[in-house]
Amino acid sequence: MLRYYLAEDTINHSDVDRLISWLKTYPRLTKGEVTLDFENKWGQWLGREYSIFCNSGSSANLLMFYALLLSKRLKNKKIIVPSVGWVTSVAPAIQFGFEPIMCEADPETFGLDLSHLEILLKRHRPGAVMLVQVLGVPHKMDEILKLKKRYGFLLLEDACAAVGAEYHGNKVGTFGDMASFSYYFGHQFSTIEGGMVSTNDKHLADLLLMLRSHGWSKDLDATTHKKLIRQYRVDDFHSPFVFYEPGFNLRSTDLNAYIGLGQIEKLSMIIKARQKNHSQYLNRLGDYFYTQKWDKESRVCSISFGLLAKNRSERAAVVSALNSHGIETRIFSAGNLGLHPFWVKRYGKASFPFADRIHHTGFFLPNNPSLSAKNIDFISDVVLAAALRT
Ligand SMILES: Cc1ncc(COP(=O)(O)O)c(C=O)c1O
């Protein structure tokens, strides 16, 4: 019987009651005004001009990759992708015919390894780089932005598991040309399923809006919509159903957006709770286990506490102890994506010393706002006792 889950819902009873009261007003539930309100409030919170709500973080990544391709700003279709992240941080590169080149993980933040990245940038001169902000630990953004300037690539930032983290006072998700976020159950906050792309670039935002809904122009601002109508000589009757790009339907609904509005209200409380838990884990376990590191001016906001055991057998012993005490655990994110069949089948194994170490020795502990200091002490005791016995 599990007593401590990795993920707990941030949609609590009062959120459900609030939702029920709203539903009792019999609103129209498909994407509409509430979605616009949620996108605006999110954009204000984050500090980005344009935000596009969609049905998952994976959909947000899909939209970013395709918008990048259609923007005609890429100098080529080569893209550096991380070895540590999520499958859908990389999958759209394959789906859209990019040439993905995998990068080793940084031994501090577990994001892109800067020296390997620079070797790849020199060798391949790629059009784009996909950076994952790993598990709410901000990457070394000054260095990444210097490389961006030097090598002239477009930057996609996957902040799906990093909402609330900050680098030198700037929120994670404000560094890339576009950034993606996930509101999946168990993430920093939840809209059941949900995702967002945020950007300051109007051209990219227009592409994202069209691609999210079939490729039509209805969701664009009136001026841009009318400009397209004039450019393509579209008559009024046809205008709502003219498709300017080969789009998808990756929309969410006003129901999910309504939940999101309530979650933004309590975001600072959620962030504080996760940070408190993270530092307690670090105090208890940081001397014994290898963990992510960040500089003093950054703020971490994690959804699980990730650790590396000394070796595979120590991890096996800890996992078994966690299981027998009803504490849920799992591998560290996806481990090294370069060892997964979807990658190996196409490009061969992408084995790197540090990403492989994460793959073979990494594991997660629960970090959600409902955990008390006592719970975290108990979980830490179980982990330490198991490790010390091996
Ligand atoms: C780094 C990263 N990117 C993308 C995703 C996908 O988000 P979603 O589950 O909302 O599709 C995840 C999910 O955990 C993730 O960790």
Mean pLDDT: 97
* Content of β-strand: 5-15%
What would the CATH topology of the largest domain be? Aspartate Aminotransferase, domain 2
Main pleated sheet: 7 strands, mixed
Radius of gyration: 22 Å
What is the name of the CATH architecture of the largest domain? 3-Layer(aba) Sandwich
State the low-pLDDT regions, or none.
Answer: none
Key structural traits:
alpha/beta, Aspartate Aminotransferase, domain 2, Aspartate Aminotransferase, domain 1, 2 domains, 13% strand, globular, binds pyridoxal-5'-phosphate
Describe this entry's structure for a reader.
With about 400 residues, this protein is an alpha/beta fold. It has two domains: about 15-265, Aspartate Aminotransferase, domain 2 (3-Layer(aba) Sandwich), CATH 3.40.640; about 270-390, Aspartate Aminotransferase, domain 1 (Alpha-Beta Complex). The protein contains 14 helices and twelve strands. It has helices spanning about 15-25, 35-45, 55-70, 85-95, 115-125, 140-150, 200-210, 220-230, 255-265, 265-285, 310-325, 340-345, 355-360, 375-390; strands at about 50-55, 80, 100-105, 130, 155-160, 165, 170, 180, 195-200, 300, 305-310, 360-365. Helix 2 (about 35-45) runs parallel beside helix 9 (about 255-265) and helix 5 runs parallel beside helix 6. Pyridoxal-5'-phosphate binds near residues 57, 85 and 160.
Short characterization:
The protein has 390 residues and is an alpha/beta fold. The chain is built from 14 helices and twelve strands. Residues 56-58, 61, 85-86, 88-89, 132, 158, 160-161, 182, 184, 195 line the site of pyridoxal-5'-phosphate.
